[in-house]
Amino acid sequence: MEQFKKVISREVINDKNRREIEGMIFDIILNHINDMVFIMKVDGDQFRYVFANKAGATHAKLTVETMGKTLYEVMPLMIAERLQAVYNTVLESKEVQVFFDQSTLEDGKMVYGQSILTPVLNENKEVRFVVSVTRDITELETEKSRLIVTEQRYRSIVDHNLDGVILATLVGDIIDANPASEHLSGYTIDELKQKSIFDFVGEDADKFREFINHSLSGISLETLDFRMVNRNNRKITVHIKTVPLTIHNKITGIYMIFRDITEQATNAETIKFMAFHDQLTGLYNRRALLRDLDILLNQSVSNNEEPFSLLSIDIDRFKQLNDSLGHFAGDQILIKVAERLSIDRTDDYKVYRQGGDEFIVLLKGNRQSANQLAQNILKRFAKSFYLESHEYYISPSIGLSMYPQDGKDAETLMKNADEALFRVKEKGKAHYQFYRSEKTQSFANIVSIETQLRKALERDEFILLYQPQVELRNGKINSFEALIRWNSKEFGLVPPSEFIPLSEDTGLIIPIGNWVIEQACKQIKEWNTLCDEDISIAINISAKQFQQPTLVNTIKKAIQTFQIKPSLLEIEITEGIMQDTVETAPILKSLKDLGVRIAIDDFGTGYSSLNYLKNFPIDGLKVDQSFVRGIHNNEKDAAITTTIIHLANSLGMTVVAEGIEEEAQAEFLLNTDCHKGQGYFYSKPLTKMDIEHTIFNRPANS
Ligand code: C2E
Ligand code: MG
Ligand code: MG
What we know:
Blueprint: H1 2-13, H2 16-32, E1 36-43, E2 46-52, H3 54-60, H4 71-74, H5 77-93, E3 97-104, E4 110-121, E5 127-136, H6 138-159, E6 164-169, E7 174-177, H7 179-185, H8 189-192, H9 205-216, E8 221-229, E9 235-247, E10 250-260, H10 262-276, H11 286-302, E11 308-315, H12 318-325, H13 327-342, E12 349-355, E13 358-364, H14 367-380, E14 385-387, E15 390-392, E16 396-403, H15 410-426, E17 432-434, H16 435-438, H17 446-458, E18 462-471, E19 477-488, E20 492-494, H18 496-506, H19 509-530, E21 536-540, H20 543-546, H21 551-562, E22 569-574, H22 581-594, E23 597-603, H23 610-615, E24 620-623, H24 625-629, H25 635-650, E25 654-657, H26 663-671, E26 676-677, H27 688-695
Parallel strand pairs: 16-17, 19-21, 21-22, 22-23, 23-24, 24-25, 25-26
Antiparallel strand pairs: 1-2, 1-5, 3-4, 4-5, 6-7, 6-10, 8-9, 9-10, 11-13, 11-16, 12-13, 14-15, 18-19, 18-26, 19-20
Helix pairs in contact: 12-13, 19-21
The site of ligand C2E has 24 residues, from strand 19, helix 18, helix 19 and strand 23.
């Protein structure tokens, strides 16, 4: 600008040579630059055009004629007034003034101009001329406003974003952050700018660093569930998205967009928890059991069939407790039961509530550890429970199945544990039982059980238990039913239902049956020498046995061998035997001739023809336990029982009711003139020693 002033002042000096050269230079410069140059002469309070370069003349539509005219004469009034005002300020200040203006062209296009107005002073420091250089900055302005719009758009997205947005350098230092990040992190934007993005990540720091580094390689990433610790030390779960900041093809930083999903995460966790847990006890539920069993089975398969056990646990008499104490108390009991079952829980020992009072335990380890745990659980329940200051004894029954012996899939393992549990319940509860120890392997390994069964006689593995038959009138006991058990080394104590059918199929029933006959006669002898009164024993004879031509002889021999009164031996046969009347009649007659008593077992459940009662020499009927069980809640059972008793009485037969479990049943039977009763209410089947000790009042060691 100084330079320019000098040039102008020299022109005023009017040096001829220089003027020529300078004129040329002016010409070139002024007419070749895009800026518009105007020189205005100050004339009082008016400004007159004295020079305009090509650009200026074109833009302002000046001609040679316009030279010497004032602003007002040349320009439209509005523009003239504005320009006059600016020129006035130069006049007053005598200093360079810069001003911007905008104008609309005829075609409606906006143009922006930046003008530099320079005063030219004479020796008296009076402003003589004003040189105006105006530059068209339309393009610059457009670009600037485009940038502003872009910036504002960007800020709108960022500032009003509900997600936190943070811009960080390549090493993680925070450069910028939006208001939502303030809210999420608990720090102000200024404080955030002092921090690093790595300052917030808690437990997953390594994972997070890896994630960021990966993103810095130029990939936009999205991930779920990072735990962030905010200013108040609150852990929040955030969903993070990263966008690398690329400028001129170079990654210069990273944007992190993070959303607080704590609530959803908590909800999701709650839902997950509820899906796999029992609401009442907080234990795992059935769904979790199926899931875990699946995992365990897979693990065990790949670990060389590593064993584990499944314990099916049921609370004895829970239904009665629940009914008598109410459901609230029932729930409290279940909670306490769950607590006791959960003692010493580990990763290898998990407890589930199947529903109701059914619990399942999965335990990794062999049979021995399962055995140990079952014993421990029973011990834990030996201690009483307190409920509203009342004391209750609650016992569990436990059925166990082992992987892989008892099943290789979830369903089989559960089914077999349940079956073992069922046996426990049947045997009087509060106990535990492995699936295989009692269950014959007849399905899995029929040869094995048959082999064992054949050896059982030589090994002396059979025993007879005796169940007292009580005279309902006076409570006297002078007869017993002999019930066989197989005390197998391999399978434990096996009930007759498990091996009698197989014995029949294989013909083993004959030697086994003979053993029973002999054993019973021996026992009759023993007990009758012991007691003053007659003691009789009933034995069960199966259909196959009955058809053996040697049966009568065998019995005859036994009676003779032990020299017992034949009437003290009772033969229990089922109705099925009566069907084959041609063969049956002579056998029954021969037996009768021997003098033994004949009773029909499970009367009313099989082939029932009253004809045989008339034709055959029957001494007694045994009312099946299925009728006795329903005496009180099933009118039909009561009617059938009453009818059978009346029938027996009127035919002069004795009648024994089986399966009496409650006093009320005994009372009903007494009132209906039933002679004898047999069942758990009086006694379970007992060993010979027990009978002698408890029934005959003999010292146990005698
Ligand atoms: P059963 O002759 O009808 O014997 C009665 C069954 O009812 C016995 O089962 C006995 O333990 C059971 N019981 C007794 N009181 C009650 C009670 O109050 N409630 C319940 N729920 N059950 C009670 P066990 O000893 O398991 O014998 C089952 C069956 O096996 C017998 O039925 C009999 O048919 C057969 N059995 C038993 N011993 C022999 C035997 O030496 N030879 C033959 N061939 N069969 C036998
Ligand atoms: Mg019987
Ligand atoms: Mg029976």
